[in-house]
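REVIEWER CHECKLIST
Item 1: Sequence provided? yes
Item 2: Single chain? yes
Item 3: Sequence as submitted:
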Amino acid sequence: MICTFIGHRDTPDTVREILHKTVEKLIKERNVTKFYVGNNGNFDRLALSVLKELSKEFPHIEYYVVYAYLPQNNDENYLHTIYPEGIENKPKRFAIDFRNKWMLNRGDILVTYIKNNVSNSAKFAEYAKKKGKEVINIFR
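Item 4: Structure as written out by the authors:
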């Protein structure tokens, strides 16, 4: 089972605890072993920190940072990264959409933080639902 993450750039840090519980439950109860996360915004940062932490307790899980475009500096030094094939031909303004669809097409479950139903995150949650994916919104 594969899980992907898409959420608001301005997700508050207070979401980390529920995100941690949600991901841990997916590992323990749903046998999710692979995770794809982007590198744009606070939700992605929170998801990545949760995955790093949980990988110590569950060394069998794999997680990958999926780039929409190559980083311009060396500050983003992730152990496992993916640069989706074909994204290099996309204009920069469409790269995040391409990357998100790439992740969703490969995943089984989407964990998201959506507080605004007219956002890009909501658009991708609807896309995932139409593709038959399970969507877990941790917004409370």
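Item 5: Key structural point noted by reviewer: The two ends are 25 Å apart (CA to CA).
Item 6: Recommendation: ____
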